[in-house]
Amino acid sequence: MGPISGEPKNVKFYNLSLADRLRLMAEQSGVAPDELAALAGQPGLNPDQADHMVENAIGTFALPVGIAQNFIINGRPVLVPMVIEEPSVIAGASYMARLAQPTGGFIAHSDPPEMIGQMQIIDLDDPPTARLKLLEQKNRLLAEAAQVDPVLAKLGGGPRDIQVRLIESSPIGPFLVLHLVDDVRDAMGANAVNTAVERLTPLVQQITGGRVLLRILTNLADRRLARVRVTIRLNNLANGDFSAEQVRDGVIAAWAFAAADPYRAATHNKGIMNGVDAVVIATGNDWRAVEAGAHAYAARSGRYTSLSTWGQDADGNLAGALEMPMAVGTVGGATQVHPAARAALKLMGVTSARQLAEIIVSVGLAQNLAALRALATEGIQRGHMGLHARQVAIAAGAVGEQIERVAAQMVAEKTVRSDRAEEILKEIKP
User: Fold this and answer.
1) 20-27, long-range: CB within 8 Å, 24+ apart, which pairs?
2) Catalytic: 286?
3) pLDDT for 3 beyond 50
């Protein structure tokens, strides 16, 4: 895909009609308009498809889909679909991506797609000895696990390692935990890993003389990390009355707060996940699994802290990085069943799960910077309230041009409330 450009002269993307935005995206991405139409719910996920996805289905539930612009990731321009109901997220990420363009955008890489399946082994007479017996039989266990999915093996995936941990202190006494490390290629991997540990259960029980109780993957996918870094030139950081140096130092100080205090880190990381989850949902992936892995990873030292880091480089520029587990797939599950998820992957030109993970963490870091920059300067409410005001206006009954008029007046008055929206609406109605 070529550079992301082509908006009509002097017309911003957000000022175009929905139909014109879809048309422009089709031109920029080379994806057929009828394929992208699924992102606009045309036809999207229908009730019959939903009925096969979950039990007791009664219909579907829609959320807004927006496009984050200006992203250059590993040298490639990317249009990023985001599914989110919160105002200002897409605009914030897009603006930070534009600030990153002069330095080449976002540089990302990711680990091989290795997931971990856990087996809890209890009722052992001698747990330490049982652990050694399992390690002695590592090759036999790996060979058995490899029989589960020959197709995965042909694609270069399959079991990679066996690890055994002794849990010495627990409410039920000592027990063992066996980790099966499995390369799941372009899948998220839950089904493949869970099937593999089920297959190993009889053999593990035979080797140890114990009983396998739980056998399931872990969402702390710390062997499947995605990492991204970005540099923002100092001269691009000035914001209104705030100098470039003030913005840079404010972002770093705001990050230091999150790094040191778990109360702040929780909201700081939530800002990262605003960007991450929006892309995960757009591509039909399991956002709960990604959330669980992210927060567990943030607490891996025993104290919950920031997932990102921010500082300044030797030239005084702002430099940021993000590292987190990213267990997402491009095959299987809703990524293939949901028409909009397929369209989202095609729009981004994604060819592998690792590439998707790298896009997702780039958006997470961009959104993190957007929040930190706002907090360190005019405050988070200014931009957020401007967009939130539209929702309040609509809830008050505004339609058409009334929405912008009511929203603009509330923002000008710095009073974004439903009662004030109703009053303004009464004033402007003929």
Assistant:
1) 21/67, 25/67, 25/79, 25/347
2) yes
3) no
